[in-house]
Design brief:
homotetramer; 311 residues; Endonuclease I-creI; nine-stranded mixed beta sheet; Jelly Rolls
């Protein structure tokens, strides 16, 4: 149960099977840092090319294909005051004939926004552009936008997107105190993380949260022989599953199917019980509708599952 | 400001321009009843064919195309103890290769469930089928699944589906205390309502909530010259817009575009302000992913809009 | 086997159950005219509001719900020289971030095009706008964009869209010599037709063909007890089925499922035979990707079905 | 202009930047072999794991990111008589509620089919399973299902799927005599090929064609500075573009946008001219609707582009 302090020296923009940055044991904790999505560090220096550069990978001893890697997000702390993002909705999230009405910057591109992130005050103050919002204060809720493990079959999947191995899910539910679960596809799992947001709206409809570099503390646990199909998570109140795909319909199908499997395999619910319960109590959240794969989240309240027999 | 007590004598399974059941004035309240989605009334008698039979239509004096009809949902009260629904997920909401694993009844159809709905206790107790859930108690949250106005251009749109005029949106947010807004397409708006659920999960993933007949009280208000494109709503904490379409992606586009228009037209936000705010604070909910048109809901917290200049 | 000459006096922009314009017998032929999608007649006069105004409905004696109405398209002849349409791709058929690059007219709308339609020469010469194409000659292939029967359950469905009853399918395969089949939902079937195109590309990607008024001759046949689920058709070389829905994926699913049913019910193929054959020989065409419901067409070559036992 | 005879010794199931199997020059021809999708060679021996194992990669001297690689498919010849595939439609291509009606084999899996492929006769005779088709003869039309170049940014993309770099497009139009064009993302382009089909239906709706190993001859040409966004191709009669994505709607958007760019950049058509022409004459084909990314093809007849000024 060691706590490692790790300072990254290189970053990855794919999740892949590659040389580990650090080998850690089941149960270990890591304290490390992540640059922001653009490769900027705590000092506003671009130290690596943009595109969700990842810290890692961490090789977790004992993790083998067919296992599950549990990752406890102990702490996610922005480590600078400058946050940036986009200030206009993405073209794919509005009606096609509304696209020409979206604001553009002087070069015809999507306008940028900047914030002053004050962890003590718990707010991010909009500093630009000049809009009718003025210096609006957004409440902080730091999260990890992109994290996961090496994908199956030697693939190297861009950190722009997501799939069964996790990746760029941009789900605002991945905050401190949450445990994320990933299917292990490669020996050691090879865990990557980065792309913190000081906060984000549902769906990441402008294509960013408030992008920020951060200090992160996480703990890993290997769940031998627990086979899962898609990323899962849990917090104090809910268990949840994530489907990553386009269109949203397919992301919903993945997340929903994964939840049924979970309820049937670990809560001793028969098919009819699991589905009757889901039908009347399930909750959904939109992770993102911007990345190449969209992310949809299927949630069940833990309270509703209490008292049910566990396997 | 009259309160009308109205007893329906016929029901409609399309929303259409037809003979009004009752003519009411701007500001009037109506106390009436709705049969359930299957045409069963408070006495468990099927008094009209199934398919979301509607009470109404109510002709609201002064409502003209180009106006908005506001409907305050004052009271939605189940008026019998018997609730029914489905007990298996719908084939379209799971992975296609998982469909053969969905439970079926003896005839190969989708299994039915029944509940004992106890308004005093605030619960619906599952009475059948026999599952690992036993006599599980679901918390009540009565809502209207299907309501809206006569659609544009003389269309008669089935109450199985939904569109700009409302219809079968099956959104669990339409509970007591909510105000719904509909674009008016026909003189008098011609308001229809029905398809109550004692409660429902997000997405109506089994194809039903806990289907129930009910007593309803609602009040109408005509908003002259307020042009909206899609149904909207508000409750104590949020304003929201609904997009009704397939696939979900398009429903999201409609709801999101409608919210931008709302913020820009009634909250005096410029495009960049409205979109920067939405990008970091917007919330989405899945109404239904079962009906011919799916329903997606875009929400903004009122608290976040306070202090902003209003038009 | 009467041939009726029918001159329309009113037009419909929904397909619905309404007063027949003419009652005809099984086997009868009708010679009539259709205005164009904008309501313009052979003399370029707008004689009815736009939106695919329909000629009809024709009540076919003996047609009952559960039957199929066969419609032989004997002749579709443009009856004027002026054709019009759109000159820019629709926003929904290009990448969302390409939408701002689509040409617009002086009012920000979608630019119009006009053609000189010469039936003798078999060409439509582009007369405006001025483009690098000059006076380009398009080969004529007159077709019906919108036709079908009254939909189920008293619905009145806009002629902007399509569904199981047919409607605005905008499939360029509906030319002279084709037989179309529609499921009958209302007594007499109530057949409507209109929206001719002098020719059209796959998908109607600009939102129009070369819009034209026309003379039409068609013959109806009632197929008692033949139950079909979606519009079907056949020409000299192929049988085909049409799925009308959004997104395209769902339209494909409808058309494909309808073709399997056809092969199994009328060609005496077992499921494995029908599907093995389809898997290696099926052809698809894109009807339209512009209307509220898209149309996808599943085709099988008749030659490949010859020699197979028929039921 | 060398002709290389290359015998593969290892195979890849991702397209990636890796050690070249052979370095060739601009203009060179390669004669080689491909195993089938399951890793079976000309002798029916499984010599490598399944999943569209690729021959290659071929490093083409002079090809740099920003160029285009042209690949002339000179010859695709099945090199054994045994062909195999699937005999039931895939669950995702039929209506969700039709899925339980799809045939399954004794283990509940998707049934297999086998063919006797006779290149002299030009036919593939169905040898199993036993169906109402009997020993049906399918006409041969050998094609490559999966080929392309190393993707951008160091990604290693599974040969189960496709993207901007090509990959598993399963388009039956990629036959002898066709030239395919790929955007170059890595130095040397790194060309991979495999997954031949003796023939295939539109859409690969059973998830396979008639899977076969083959001899292939191809020639490469580097088009310096020609920037394309998606795979393109041309044959004697048409030019075409391919969009690879889910859902089909998005694949259509990619292919359509790529065609507009092509017409505007290389045929000297202005936007209005290109789009007016496309609107009335474009053709579409469904490549596949089975793989993780679907493939849609946008085609323009060369004859219609003759006489237009070229850049």
């Amino acid at each position: 149960m060691t706590t490692h302090t790790f300072t990254p020296t290189r970053y990855y923009t794919t999740m892949c099977t590659t040389e580990p940055a650090l080998v850690i044991a089941d149960g270990d904790t890591v304290v490390t840092t992540c640059v922001d999505a653009g490769g900027y560090d705590a000092h506003k220096a671009r130290i690596t090319p943009p595109g969700n550069p990842m810290t890692g990978p961490f090789f977790v001893q004992g993790a083998e294909p067919g296992d599950t890697l549990a990752v406890d997000l102990v702490r996610i702390t922005p480590n600078r005051r400058w946050g940036w993002g986009r200030a206009a909705l993405a073209p794919n999230v509005v009606d096609p004939d509304f696209v020409p009405a979206l604001p553009v910057d002087a070069d015809g591109g999507r306008p940028r926004a900047e914030w002053d992130v004050d962890m003590d005050a718990g707010t991010a103050i909009l500093t630009s552009p000049q809009t009718s919002l003025g210096h609006y204060a957004f409440a902080l809720a730091p999260m990890l936008g992109c994290f996961g493990v090496a994908p199956a079959e030697g693939q190297a999947i861009s950190t722009a997107t997501s799939a069964e191995h996790g990746g760029n899910m941009d789900y605002r539910g991945f905050v401190e105190g949450v445990t994320a679960y990933f299917p292990v596809f490669a020996p050691g799992a090879l865990f990557f993380l980065g792309d913190a947001h000081a906060q984000q709206g549902d769906g990441e409809m402008v294509g960013t949260g408030i992008e920020i570099s951060c200090n992160v503390e996480f703990r890993v646990r290997v769940q031998k022989g627990r086979r899962i199909g898609w990323p899962r998570g849990e917090n104090d109140t809910h268990i949840f599953t994530l489907g990553n795909a386009r269109p949203l319909d397919q992301a919903v199908q993945h997340a929903t199917t994964e939840m049924v499997r979970w309820l049937q395999s670990e809560y001793a619910l028969d098919a009819l019980g699991a589905q009757t319960l889901m039908g009347q109590t399930v909750r959904y959240e939109l992770g993102n509708m911007f990345d190449p794969a969209y992310t949809f989240v299927c949630k069940m309240e833990k309270r509703l599952l209490e008292g049910l027999p566990r396997t």
